[in-house]
Amino acid sequence: MPAEIFPTQPASLIKTVALVGNPNSGKTTLFNAFTKLRQKVGNYPGVTVEKKTGTLVLANDRVVNVVDLPGTYSLAVRSPDEQIVRNVLLGRAAGEPRPDMVVCVVDAGNLERNLYLFSQIQDLGLPIIVALNMMDEVESRGQTIDVDQLSRRLGVPVVPTVGNQNKGIEELKQLIAGNVTANYQRQWRMAPDLEEEVEHLVRLLEQHENMDSHQAFAEALILISLGSKLKNDEKSSPLKYFFKEELIGQINAVQDRLRAKGLRSRTAAIEARYDWIKSILKDCVRDKARKGPDLTERIDAVLVHKLWGWLFFLGIMGLMFYTIFTIATYPMEWINAGFNWLGDQVRSFLPAGPLRDLFADGVIPGVGGVVIFLPQILILFLFIGMLQDTGYMARAAFIMDRVMSKVGLHGKSFIPLLSSFACAIPGIMSTRTIESPKDRLVTILVAPWMSCSARLPVYTIMIAVLMPSANNWQKAGLMLLMYVIGIVSACGMAWVFKKTLLRSQKPVFIMELPPYRLPSGKAVVIHMWERSRLFLRRAGTVILAMSVILWALMSYPKSPAAVDSAQAVKHSFAGRMGTVLEPAIQPLGYDWRIGIGLIGSFAAREVFVSTMSIVFNIGKETQEDTLRGAFQSARWPDGRPLFTPLVCLSLMVFYVFALQCVSTIAIVHRETNSWRWPIFQFLYMAAVAYLAAFLVYQAGRLFGFS
Amino acid sequence: MPVNNKQNVLLSQMSVGQRGVIHNFVVESDDCERIEEMGVTPGEKVEVVRYAPLGDPIEIKIRGYLLSLRREEADRIEVTLL
Q1: Any alpha helices (H) in A544-660, and if so which ranges?
Q2: Å from B80 to nearest chain A CA?
Q3: Residue of chain B nearest A306, judged by CA positions
Q4: How far apart are CA A70 and CA A86, in angstroms?
Q5: B72: CATH
Q6: CB A462 within 8 A of CB A678
Q7: What chain A residue is nearest to B76 in terms of C-alpha separation?
Q8: Which of A90, A199, A573, A607 is the most buried (most CB within 10 A)?
Q9: Average pLDDT for residues A416-445, to the nearest whole number?
Q10: C-alpha to C-alpha distance for A652 and A650, rounded to whole angstroms
Q11: Number of domains in chain B
Q12: At what angle do helices A27-35 and A521-538 cross, to 10 degrees?
């Protein structure tokens, strides 16, 4: 047991343990093993980085907090993830206690690169334990790692683990309970001239900024690697940190000296660390003779093949959509039936009156209309979780990158956009895999233009009215056209955003292709559960509130003289809003009744259909045929038909573009941590929707269509 | 291997299966730092594993793992062929 050679302290000190590691190192599996299901997912204040915490129960019921920090390759401060990891480990994150200990999870099969991050963390002076994860893969590849030797050379305890088999977890717990202390002497060295300048910077930072020696050293390394002069404003400072004015001058003087000496300071520390790691691994890792290509190479030969790769890619995407649009419909029907049953129960249980109407017509159908998408979301995240955990997701990004780069996006934007065809909510939630904040934002901003399944009912009814006698192929063709309009516009808009609003220095596209692994069922289930919980929480709060508001708008004020629901609706606030709206939407070919439909469908797009059935007074049990008949016989006051083919087209185009979805707005608010972006998105999409519907209708009329 | 046979090419010019040693970055910039942090440092052995089906990005093997980068980035890395 290597732990015995390290000094320990009384056990009461450790309160918080941070889990740190590269992406794909199995960090999350270890976190799950530590915390079982005692987990909490939230956000770090002010940023969109996910914050995962949990509790670990040690012997004698001692409980410590575990923080699962985002997976990163480095502690440099280029992405929000790296920033958070660095700030938490330095005790600079607002509201976060500095961890008392770090468990650094490294992929034993990819030690060289994984130890790079370890070496950076070690500089911060915290007690560290290394979890040498996925040892089983190393053994099956015929490699051996001398763990004791590695532990001695790194200067920290090293525990071999296999996260998904719970191997090594007890040993880690014992070490955490036993309280390892930091006893760190840096062993890697840069060129003497550079070391001298770093030492100088460390002294400056210690004096002027009151940093401890570890913190000062870590910051000094970043400072010497700067290619440009340091300016003292938070935005442009690479450390996102203010320095005193006199210090800035001194730091810049150091940089001038480095430049004058012609020292390669930018990458010196990186190379020195890697050299140190290599020298250690030379003595600790033994490669037995390898026979032939390994499993990952053999799988890749097919899955990234010029022909088979495409077939598999299209096949897996096809399977995903097939499942979402077929298998998911069964539980969706159950949910629908369940909410209908609930509504009926309320109707028979509560006495007639506003309270009954509120629940039966407002709350239950409103929430039900959103919860109904839960099966699709679960299936989507099942697929995404599996694709991610097997390592195929990186391959999909690899294959699609060339296409996505045409509009200035990253290959990783592909899956979120694709997912948005089912529902923009999981699509937007899955943009978390995109590291570059600007690329992520652009993806979020255009994702709702991928026609989601909630638009299907609207498209279906409109197509039925538009071409009642057309065959299924023609109908499908028109439907496809709507999808294509959305896709092409989303690409165009992404390109515009990348050129203007969200222009960034071209980010480096650099992505690890992790080895293929069997996904852990537990991790995938936990992932699905987390996402669904977030979604359901939305349904329980924002959507609930919105459905109450919409119900009130459609029901009040009551019209004493109304004989049917159509008249009652006209008298309501929504009806009045529709009437007020009419002059604005008349150029698109819509009357006040369609206006009410547009207002109603803010809750969710498919609500358009049920709202219209109230407006046209066809009662609750809407048959598509009856609604179609009502649409076809609807007239303007002067007797002209309302739903002309042009109006149907214009309405469909409107629904392609308009962000008629409270849940999406709410999720964009959550994911961007601001109201600015969802409001901007709503407005620009509304403007485009209006303009496009206007063009369709007016240009159509100009060409003599009706 | 004869010494006079050694020549420098850009990583993006290498063909699948070819091996070399990272020589240097053509221009130094912040991006180099990012690439070097992933282990692509001068003196390290590299092998081109494949190009993506559409010809970009490129997949390399370095330090025992697989990494993909766009041709744009590969254009900036000089490699001494082995």
Answers
A1: 544-555, 565-571, 573-585, 592-600, 607-615, 624-633, 645-657
A2: 18
A3: B53
A4: 10
A5: 2.30.30.90
A6: no
A7: A508
A8: A607
A9: 85
A10: 5
A11: 1
A12: 80
Sign of CA dihedral A407, A408, A409, A411: positive
Tell me the pLDDT of chain B averaged across its residues.
89
Distance of CA A544 to the CA centre of its chain: 24
DSSP A605-630: TTHHHHHHHHHTT--SS--HHHHHHH
Decide: A70 and A84 in contact? Cβ < 8 Å: yes
Which structure tokens are listed for A136?
């089983």
Q: Which tokens belong to A270?
A: 């990186």
CA nearest to B55 within chain A: A402
CATH class belonging to A2-178: alpha beta
Domain that holds residue B35: 3-81
Question: What distances in angstroms separate CA A141 from CA A22, A25, A108, A149, A288, one per listed residue?
Answer: 21, 17, 11, 20, 8
Query: Is the confidence at residue A584, as pLDDT, over 80?
Result: yes
Q: Put residue B61 in one of left, alpha, beta given phi > 0 → left and psi -120 to 50 → alpha.
A: beta
pTM over 0.95: no
Residue type present at position A600: G
- Render the burial of A241-257: b for 16+ CB within 10 Å, e for the rest: eebeeebbebbbebbee
Which distant-in-sequence residues (6+ apart) come within 8 Å of A382 by Cβ? A524, A528
Residues of chain B with pLDDT under 50: 1-4
Residue B10 is predicted with a pLDDT of: 95
């040690």: which residue's tokens?
A: A58
Q: Where are the domains of chain A?
A: 2-178, 192-262
Structure token digits, residue A441: 């934002």
* E strand map for A394-543: 510-513
- Whole-number average pLDDT of chain A: 85
A78, A109, A264: residue with CB nearest B34: A78
Rounded Cα gap, residues A443 and A440, in angstroms: 5
Q: Do A74 and B37 touch (CB under 8 A)?
A: yes
